[in-house]
Amino acid sequence: MYQEVKLELIFLLPIFLPFLTAIFLFLNKKLFNELITNFFTLNSALLSFAIAAYSFIVLGLDKFKPVNVELFQWISNPDISIGFTLDGLSGIMLILVTGLSFVIQLFSTSYMEKDENHCNYFVYFNFFVFSMLLLVMSSNFLVMFFGWELVGLSSYLLISFWSKKPAAAKAGNKAFVINRVGDFGFLIGLMIILDTFNTFDFYKILQNTSGIAESTITAISLFLLLGAFGKSAQFPLFSWLPDAMEGPTPASALIHAATMVTAGVFMLVRISPLLQHSKIASLLIIIFGLITALLAAFSAINQFDIKKVLAYSTISQLGFMFIAIGAGAYVAAIFHLVTHAFFKALLFLGAGAVIHSMHHEQDIRKMGGLRKKMPITASMMGIGTLAISGIPPLAGFWSKDEILASVFVNGGIYYVFWALALGAAFLTAFYMGRHWLLIFEKDNGFEHSDVAEAPKAMTRPLLLLGIFSIFIGFINTPFFHGLEKVLHVTLENVEVTHLPKGITLVVLAVLSIGAGFTGLIIAFLLFGMELHKRIDLKKFKLESPINLVKDLSSNVLYLNKFGNLFFVSGMKNLSRKVAVVVDGMLIDGSVNFVSTAFNKSSKITSTTQTGLVRNYVVYFGLFLLLLIALFIATPLVPR
After folding, report:
1. Are 205 and 197 in contact (CB under 8 A)?
2. Is residue 571 domain-shared with residue 514, that is, in the same domain?
C-alpha cells in the first residue's frame, strides 16, 4: 500500500515537469541566453526520464498492475473526473516519450544554435512533450481528449516555427485543419461513449463491453478511428505529414518518433477491448493500414527531399502498426511503435546532421559522396536504414516480422493482406536503400569541400540511437516475450493474435528477410552501380513505364492535387456560389426587399407630412367623411 501511494505521487512528476519548464522558459526568455536555456531544458528532460524509469521499474516489481490517481471528480453523474493511470501500456509510452525527448533536445541544442527564437523553440518543445504525456497517461477519455487537442496545438507551433517562411505557415495551418477533421470524429465517439456507459473512465468502460450491442461498439470504434486517422496520418488524412517537414528537423524527429503520429496507434490499442467486438472496425483498420502502407511506400520511391522521404516512410510504418491492430496483434503494434521510434529518430536526426553540414540543403540530388565527409552520420543512418528495412538482427526485423506473421496466421483473406504487406516491406527497403545511397555513396557531381562531420552534440545522440536501433528489438523476440509480459495486465481481457509456431514461423521470417534484402539489392543495382544506365530502356520498351511510375510516385498518385482541386479550390468556388445564391439572393435579398419597401413607402407617406395645420384639418375632415360613409354603407346588425 505504501509503495502504491508513493508511486502515485511520483509518476505524475514526469507529466508536469515539461509543462513547468515550458512556463519557466517562456517567462524568462528575455533574460536567458542559449546556454542557460539549454541547461534548464536538458536537466528537466533528464529528470523526467529518470523519474519515469524509476516509476516503470517499481510498476514492474508489482507485475504491472495499474496504478490510478484521481485528482478530482468534475461531475458525479455522469461520472467525469480528472485522473491519470500508470500501467504497462502507459508506462512504455512514458519511458519512450521522456527518453527520446531528452536525446532529441540534446541534439537540438546544437541544431538550433544561434536561432533568433532559440528559447521559444524549447518552450514549444516542452509543451509538446507535456501534451503527449497528458494523452498517454490519462485514465479516461476526457483527459485523453485534452492531451489530444493540445498535441495538435503544439504540433502547429513547431511545424510553423519558422512562420516567416510562407511554406512553414501554410504547413502548420494544413496540419491543424486536417487534424480537426479527425478530431470531429473523435469527439462524436466520445459523445456516444458517455451516452452508452455514463462514464469516461477507461477501465470501467473496457471491462463492461460484453452487454453492449455490436452496432454501438462499431459506431464508437469507427468515430474514434477517424480521429486516429488524423493524428497518425492514415489515408485519406495523411497529406499534412510530408508538408510538416517545414518545421525544424529535431521537431520532426519528435513528431514522428514518439509523440503526435503515434497517438492514434496508442489510442486504438487502449480501446482494444472494444475493437475485438467489432469485426467491421477491425477489417477497416487493416484495409486502410494496407492502403496507407503501400501508398506511402510507393510515394517515397521518387522523392528528393531528404526529410520527405522519411515522412512518407513514417506514414508507411504507421500503416504497418494499423495492420497489426486490425489483425488483433496489439502487442506487435506497440512493439513496432517502440522499435520505429528509435530508428526513425535516428534517421531524422541523421538527416538533420546532413542538412546542418550542407548549410540547410535538403535536395538529395545535390548531395552524394558524403560518407567520407561524414562517416559517423553515414554509419548511423546506415544502421537506421537496415533496421527499417527489416534486416536481422536489428530492431525493425523483429517487430515487422511479428506483424507479418500475425497477419498470416489469421488465414483466409488475411493471406492476401500478408502478401500486400510483404510488398510494402520490399518497397520500404528499396526506397530507404536509395535514400542512403544518393546521400552518402553515389557521386552526383557536386563538390563538398566545406562539408564536415556534424558537431559532437549531434553525433553523440546518433550513436546512442544507433545502439538502441540494433538491440531494442530483443525486448520481444519469439524467444523472449518481454513486451508481452509488460502488456499482459492491460490486455488481459483481449483476444490477442499470437505468432505461428514451428516451420511456418521460420518460412515467414525467411520471406520477410528476403523482401528486405531484395529491396536493398535492387536499390544498390540502380543507384549504387547505376545499372539502368547500362541497359537500353527503349529497346526493352521500359522507358515509358518507368517514367510513368516516377511521375506517379513523385506526385503521390496526384492525390494531393486532386485534394486541392476538390477540397480547397472546389470548396472555395462552391462557397462563393452559395454565398451569392443563399446569402446574396435569399438572405440579403429578403432583408433588402423589406428595407427597400419600407424606404419607398416612407418616402410616399412623408409627402403628407407638410407641417401646415390647414393641411392636417383637411386630412382630418376627409378621414371623418370616410368613416361616416362607411357607417352609412354598413347595415345595422340587430341586437
Report:
1. yes
2. no
Is residue 516 located within the same domain as residue 615? Answer: no
In tens, the pLDDT along 342-369 reads 999 999 999 999 999 998 899 999 998 8
Please indicate, yes or no, if residue 498 is contained in any of the structural domains: yes
Per DSSP, the three-state class of 536 is coil
- Sort 607 into a burial class: Cβ within 10 Å, 0-12 / 13-18 / 19+: exposed
With CA atoms as reference, report the closest residue to 296 among 427, 435, 402, 437.
427
User: Does the CA dihedral 91-92-95-96 come out positive or negative?
Assistant: negative
Nearest to 468 by CA among 110, 44, 108, 103: 103
Q: Which residues contact 322 (CB under 8 A, 6 or more apart)?
A: 232, 234, 265, 268, 285, 286, 288, 289, 292, 333
- Judge contact between 139 and 70, C-beta under 8 A: yes
> What does 272-287 look like in DSSP terms, one character per residue?
HHHHTT-HHHHHHHHH
Residue with cell 468556388: 573
Q: How far apart are CA 478 and CA 501, in angstroms?
A: 9
Task: Give the predicted TM-score (pTM) of the model.
Answer: 0.89
Averaged pLDDT, groups of 10, the chain, 639 residues long = 57 92 94 93 96 93 89 84 92 95 95 91 96 94 94 93 91 91 94 92 84 90 95 91 91 85 94 90 95 96 94 95 95 96 95 92 90 94 96 94 95 94 96 94 79 92 96 92 91 86 92 96 88 64 79 88 78 77 76 81 76 78 85 64
Helix (H, G, I), strand (E, B) or coil at 74: strand
Average per-residue pLDDT for the chain: 89
Q: How far apart are CA 403 and CA 325, in angstroms?
A: 9
- Verify that 283 and 415 share a domain, yes or no: yes
Q: Domain boundary residue among 474, 505, 540?
A: 540
Distance CA(232)–CA(265), nearest Å, equals 7
Domain membership flag for residue 108:
no
Written as nine digits, the cell of 25 is 522558459
Q: Within this chain, do residues 460 and 584 fall inside the same structural domain, yes or no?
A: no
Look at the chain and report how many structural domains it folds into: 2
Residue 365, C-beta contacts closer than 8 angstroms, at least 6 positions apart: 304, 438, 444
Compute and round to an integer the Cα radius of gyration of the chain. 31
Task: Note whether 395 and 387 are within 8 A (CB).
Answer: yes
**Does residue 198 come out as left (phi exceeding 0), alpha (psi in the -120 to 50 range) or beta?**
left
* Neighbour tally for 443: CB within 10 Å: 8
Q: Mind listing the pLDDT tens digit for each residue in 205-238?
A: 888 887 788 899 999 999 999 999 999 999 999 9
Residue 49: inside a domain, yes or no?
Answer: no
CA distance 333 to 328: 9
The amino acid at residue 260 is M
Check residue 11 and give its pLDDT: 84
On whether both 579 and 488 belong to a single domain, the answer is: no
Residue 153 cell numbers, joined: 496545438
Look at the block and give the residue holding cell 540534446.
106
**Closest of 309, 253, 266 to residue 101, by C-alpha:** 253
Instruction: Domain of residue 417: give its range.
Output: 278-540
Sign of CA dihedral 440, 443, 448, 449: positive
In a domain, 591, yes or no: yes
Shared domain check, 307 and 423: yes
Residues 573 and 464 occupy one common structural domain: no
Do 442 and 489 sit in the same domain of this protein?
yes
